Amino acid sequence: MTSKYSVPVETARSYYNSTDADNFYATIWGGTDIHVGLYEKKEDSIFDASHRTVINIANMLKLNNKSQVLDVGSGYGGPARYLASTYGCQVDCLNISEVQNQRTGELNQKYGLENKISIIEDSFEAMPMKEQTYDVVWSQDAILHSGNRQQVIKEIYRVLKPGGEFIFTDPMQSNNCPPGVLQPVLDRLLLDSMGSIDFYTQTAHELGFETVKITEMTQNLIKHYSHVLTELENCYDELLKTCSQQYIDRMKIGLNHWIDSGNKGYLSWGILHFRKK
């Protein structure tokens, strides 16, 4: 059966719908957030560091109970629940994975936030929302899964109100990354390329955004994947109860590629903040 989604988006959907991936992220990340964390101490947990990223991004915005927010690639909905419970925002979660969306719905209900958060199961390359709907579009480490990132940014611009803000993080290649060196990382993700800070900034400006602030924090990408690798090794036997050994061993290889590429200066990560003119 032919998918209605692009190949990279369908690849991400299939991956995050898999039992292995769902159980891995639930065990290692805690099943709430799936994104790069901000680490203040070596002993910080992945859960706490990931939640700290959400808090830091939210602090860069002026949110209130009238704010309409779209979370693009919302995973398990952790950021949406934080925004809805802390600021009273109305949040739409746009996400491709049925498995993740089901968990999001269950958690929203558990915390009494089902009336504040809506789940929209569709692709960020062709959003079903009307233009000029949102005050804020938020995304954490999701846009890399598109093979047409310019189209994703174009869609985000379309659904934002004038003066609306687009704030996101994404694992990226460095601006001066040599050709070919990221192939092991790209092969693991089944991608042909990655974005960069220069790419996203230029694309945003061409579409009509202005830069609010670019906060480069690449060391946290390296710290994060190092923490995930350590946790995987510590929980290896436990993970084998719910994840296949092939998946865990491939994940270990992939994490080492991320860490090695980051240490060599080939990767970049940070918080990119733009405003629609």
Structure overview:
- With about 280 residues, the chain is α/β, with parallel strands linked by helices.
- The protein has one domain: Vaccinia Virus protein VP39 (Rossmann fold, 3-Layer(aba) Sandwich).
- The chain has 11 helices and 9 strands.
- The strands form 2 sheets. Strands 3-2-1-4-5-9-7 form a 7-stranded mixed β-sheet, with helices on both faces.
- The protein is globular, with a radius of gyration of 18 Å.
- The N and C termini lie far apart (about 40 Å).
- The model has no long low-confidence stretch (mean pLDDT about 95).
Quick structural summary:
With 277 residues, this protein is of the alpha/beta class. The chain contains eleven helices and nine strands.
Present the secondary structure layout:
Layout: H1 7-17, H2 19-28, H3 46-59, E1 68-72, H4 78-87, E2 90-95, H5 98-110, E3 117-121, E4 134-140, H6 149-159, E5 160-169, E6 172-173, H7 183-189, H8 197-207, E7 209-216, H9 218-234, H10 236-239, H11 245-263, E8 267-268, E9 270-276
Parallel strand pairs: 1-2, 1-4, 2-3, 4-5
Antiparallel strand pairs: 5-9, 6-8, 7-9
CATH architecture grouping: 3-Layer(aba) Sandwich
| Overall form | globular
Lateral strand order in the biggest sheet: 3-2-1-4-5-9-7
- In total, the number of domains comes to 1
Q: Cα distance, first to last residue?
A: 42 Å
Q: Assign the CATH topology.
A: Rossmann fold
Helix-strand pattern: HHHEHEHEEHEEHHEHHHEE
Sheet/helix structural class: alpha/beta
β-strand number: 9
Name the CATH homologous superfamily.
Vaccinia Virus protein VP39
Mean pLDDT: 95
The major pleated sheet works out as: 7 strands, mixed
**CATH class term:** Alpha Beta
Count of individual helical segments: 11
Low-confidence stretches: none
C-alpha-based Rg, rounded:
18 Å
Helix content: 40-55%
Strand fraction equals 15-25%
